[in-house]
């Protein structure tokens, strides 16, 4: 489906530059707008530890994409489109459940690697 929206990244005249990230649609109630939420880990220098922070970004949601609540979407930075929006939804990546499964699948092989390394060390020690 093609749209006549000039603020669309694919059919419009807007150029995506700067930050591109994946986040979840918290709300898609305003017309042609999606509120994207993502978790970011930031360093706390005082305690030399990391903490998770949620940030929200208002993104333009063109009709040809029409992202809905709980969709996982890719968002790109553009020029300012309105008072609050300077991001555009580029595409729908999946739903929340799929995203979790993906993250878990990514995390698991790392643990296995660690175990094998430890096992090897034990064998070498013997
Ligand atoms: Zn479009």
Question: Can you walk through the features of this model?
Answer:
The chain has 126 residues and is α+β, with helices and mostly antiparallel strands. It has a domain at 20-95: OB fold (Dihydrolipoamide Acetyltransferase, E2P). The protein has one helix spanning 96-125, and strands at residues 20-27, 33-44, 49-60, 71-77, 87-95. Strands 1-2-3-5-4 form a five-stranded mixed barrel. The mean pLDDT is 86. Bound molecules: zinc ion. Residues 3, 5, 8, 10-11, 62, 64 line the site of zinc ion.
Give short descriptive properties of this protein.
five-stranded mixed β-barrel; elongated; alpha+beta; 126 residues; OB fold (Dihydrolipoamide Acetyltransferase, E2P)
Task: Give a nutshell description of this structure.
This protein is of the alpha+beta class and 126 residues long. It is built from one helix and five strands; from the N terminus they run E-E-E-E-E-H.
What is this structure's SSE topology?
Elements: E1 20-27, E2 33-44, E3 49-60, E4 71-77, E5 87-95, H1 96-125
The structure holds zinc ion.
